[in-house]
Amino acid sequence: MDIEAELSKIALREKESQNYDYLADNYQNSKNALSLIAILYYDLKQGGFPQYIYNSQGIYLSETLEILDKIKAKTIHKYLSNIIEYCINNNDSYHEFLNSNFSESNFKNELWKYSLSYTKEITDILIEIKSYVRKHI
């Protein structure tokens, strides 16, 4: 089984349905948790943390963080936790970024720095989530 292809397929299906509120409200269901992990995986692969934060629009960040804690994906959990704190501490810039057309900004550049740091520490998110994904696909 090609785990990366499966995660991408799940993420694209969820992005097409745009049923993010349902996923966030029901994230403790293993299917929905897998969908949130797939979205995180897909967005990080496409454009790092800036892509993930922009696409999430803040809807399912805390739920995804809780899932990462539950599955013991410690490094990605640490980074996402720090990013959420950065968003809170820079609320105006965060909202400007969300309302932009994914245009260049200092805020986006800071998120990109988190992406670069994460990939130096863990070369691929799949390393951290693989065992959980295998159990739930």
Care to describe what's here?
- The protein is an all-alpha fold and 137 residues long.
- It has one domain (3-136).
- Helices cover 81% and strands 0% of the residues.
- The chain is built from eight helices and no strands.
- It has helices spanning 3-17, 20-25, 30-56, 61-70, 74-89, 91-99, 106-121, 125-136.
- Helix 1 crosses helix 3 and helix 3 packs antiparallel against helix 8 (125-136).
- It is globular, with a radius of gyration of 14 Å.
- The chain starts with a helix and ends with a helix.
- The relative contact order is 0.16.
Largest sheet: none
- Rounded to an integer in angstroms, the radius of gyration calculated over CA atoms is 14 Å
Number of domains: 1
Structural class determined from secondary elements:
mainly alpha
Helix content: over 70%
Order of SSEs? HHHHHHHH
Low-confidence stretches: none
Shape: globular
The overall pLDDT, averaged over residues, is 93
List how many beta strands DSSP finds. Answer: 0
Q: What distance lies between the first and last C-alpha atoms, to the nearest angstrom?
A: 10 Å
> Strand percentage, roughly?
under 5%
Number of helices: 8
